[in-house]
């Protein structure tokens, strides 16, 4: 029994070692909640009877301390400029388009405001629209001219509430909102045209959760996505990959924008008198090999899936080898000594009773 226990101990150690080889961590990042997130800080409250359902938030480039917002579906084509200190409306920019369901805002490095008319609760729109207007030189109510860009998904209509603008190139991305399952990230053409409809291309799955807004961080290498309950940081590499999640924030999550400093974001909720909170963007990465940074992520390919299957098969081979080694050691340690002991006892009994075979003969 001592020999058997020793064998089991050796085999157990061998299998633990094999398991460590068989199940390596993958190169893609995983998602982990930051264990020590800073508490959200209330920055201001939007106090204006005209803003009943703030459904987009974007930081001004030309006017420090100013943020833009829009109402959800049912409003006219207009953008509100908000003072981030008082929460009061500084200006209303009326662009006059007949909008359907505006859900997101963005401002590029040149001070162009993008108004994303991309909501589609019934998923029945043949195309979606993004309007652009220039940031005004002075903040005052004004009627402004707009440009319209039409887009179409490659795989049918989708509901969406998130527009992303890459800081270095002004490349546009849309993240769809799925009540069941997982949304996806789509890219617009690098230089969309105002003539005809622009085709979107699917890049990668979105992180889990119902995505309601998002923004690139100023470094262009991270995206923060808002859900109803939390925020997720995404590494913007060859394939966008969620690397961290932040704690839940107050209210039904609806908006997110770059904060006053480069590593902070502002988040808001839907409804009248919406409170805007400032928090640090989640930054706890748990990837074994972070994806490389790239301005334009690439779509996932079939080879990626094949590589994943190959890794699984490699693990399975090691598990089979470990199990076989386990069985072999048990056979060697346990059965041969048992058979020899029984044979020796039988031979001794036969010799004492005179029933043993003559010397020099073997038992049949």
Descriptive account of the structure:
- With 364 residues, the protein is of the alpha+beta class.
- It folds into 2 domains: 2-24 and 307-353; 41-300, 6 Propeller (Neuraminidase).
- The chain has helices spanning 2-22, 302-353, and strands spanning 41-45, 54-59, 66-71, 78-83, 89-94, 104-107, 112-117, 128-134, 142-143, 147-152, 160-165, 172-176, 184-187, 197-199, 201-205, 211-216, 222-227, 231-235, 241-245, 253-258, 264-269, 275-280.
- Helix 1 runs antiparallel to helix 2.
- The longest helix is centred in the C-terminal third of the chain and has 52 residues, at 302-353.
Biggest β-sheet description: 5 strands, mixed
CATH architecture of the largest domain: 6 Propeller
What is the CATH class designation of the largest domain? Answer: Mainly Beta
Order of helices and strands: HEEEEEEEEEEEEEEEEEEEEEEH
CATH topology of the largest domain, anyone?
Neuraminidase
The low-pLDDT segments are: 1-35, 285-320, 328-341, 356-364
Strand content: 25-35%
Shape estimate: globular
Number of domains: 2
Helix content: 10-25%
Figure out the total of helices. Answer: 2
Task: Decide which structural class fits the backbone.
Answer: alpha+beta
Question: What is the CA-CA span between the terminal residues?
Answer: 31 Å
Q: How would you write the strand order of the largest sheet?
A: 2-3-4-5-9
Beta strand count: 22
> Would you tell me the overall average pLDDT?
77
- Rg over CA atoms, rounded to whole Å, is 32 Å
